[in-house]
Amino acid sequence: MNLHTFMDHHFAHAAMRVRLDEELGNWHGLSWEDFVLLAELDAGDGSFEAAALATRLGLSRSALLLRLLPLEKIGLVAREANAERARCVALRAGGRRLVREARATAEAACSASPF
Fold this sequence. Notes:
The protein is mainly alpha-helical. The protein has helices at 3-28, 32-43, 50-57, 61-73, 93-111, and strands at 47-49, 77-81, 87-91.
């Protein structure tokens, strides 16, 4: 892929993120990044080791923690230790409900996109 094509992809992606931030924020109080984090937890069994989740999302562990704190404060996720004493992030019932409701909004925004 050449630089020009890569930049075109970047700008299309940035425009779509803005649209998704607006739609998800207006209807569900979530940013696109919050939605992706919650959706990733929902896709599995509802729990992820924090280090693996950080890697999956392309974040450092400290950046993941900063993203988790507000979600934890409003009761969407919980941080806990698993049986092996590794730090985990678990999706709470309210988070599961919210991400499933928000998924329809995100799908509608993506299907209406000209990209």
